[in-house]
Amino acid sequence: MKDNYPQELSSLHQIKPMKVSAIHCKxxxxxxxxxxxxxxRSCRCFKSEKENVGIAINGGFDYVKVIVSSTCDYEFLHxxxxxxxxxxxxxxxxxxxxxxxxxxx
Length: 105
Prior knowledge:
The protein is α+β, with helices and mostly antiparallel strands. The protein has three helices and seven strands, in the order αβββαβββαβ.
């Protein structure tokens, strides 16, 4: 069955090679990226420590907002996440699937 989306929305469903802005937390060796506007992703050490020592990112493809502890060593990256659509990334976040958003080395 073919989806009948308006022309301006059809690009959201297009599956294509996707590159995202990401952050690599060197403290816990985790790469994180935000899948959509309200998706706040954090590294493992941000979640696990009593005092937040890691990093978090928000904003998806609309903007990049970063929360960084004063002791976190990090770097910004552009990461290829494979063939995916913007709708797939949104559904991954909104449905709690969590296939995307964190890359653990």
